[in-house]
Design a protein that fits this description.
Helices cover 45% and strands 22% of the residues. Strands 3-4-6-7 form a four-stranded mixed sheet. Strands 2-1-5 form a three-stranded antiparallel sheet. The chain is globular, with a radius of gyration of 14 Å. The two termini are 19 Å apart.
Length: 130
């Protein structure tokens, strides 16, 4: 289980650029063995870019919950275990031709990656940790 983040730490991390947020997410997800999504009564929240339908993911509950405002305020943050992510989500997202938007900030800015790219980065990080 992850330790709650201090509010000052949350603010600092939210100011990271998209690339730095991606690296932070990979490290946190591997360290905590979970990745965070937002769900509503219809399932997982989706975002759309010009080219892709995307599932947004966050490294910690605090960031996912911070995003659940305005039109998203009925959404709940939900953790997906890293094992479940590798075994089900990566293939499921690929089969549905969905991309992932990594740790979007309040401006909806985040790196868009394909499920296999995130899976690869998570596995590389896990190897570093051993």
């Amino acid at each position: 289980m992850s330790t709650p983040l201090e509010p000052t730490m949350v603010e600092t991390i939210q100011r990271y650029d998209a690339e730095k947020r991606f690296k932070y997410l990979v490290k946190e997800v591997v360290a905590n063995r979970q990745i965070w999504i937002l769900i509503d009564e219809h399932g997982c929240v989706m975002l759309n870019t010009d080219d892709e339908d995307c599932v947004p993911v966050w490294p910690n509950k605090e960031f996912a919950e911070a995003w659940a405002t305005g039109e998203w305020d009925s959404c709940k943050a939900e953790a997906v275990s890293l094992n479940k992510w590798h075994s089900r989500w990566t293939h499921g997202l690929e089969d549905d031709e969905l991309a992932i938007v990594i740790f979007p900030n309040q401006d909806e800015d985040g790196l868009v990656v394909y499920p296999d790219e995130l899976d690869y980065e998570l596995k590389q990080q896990a190897k570093k940790g051993k």
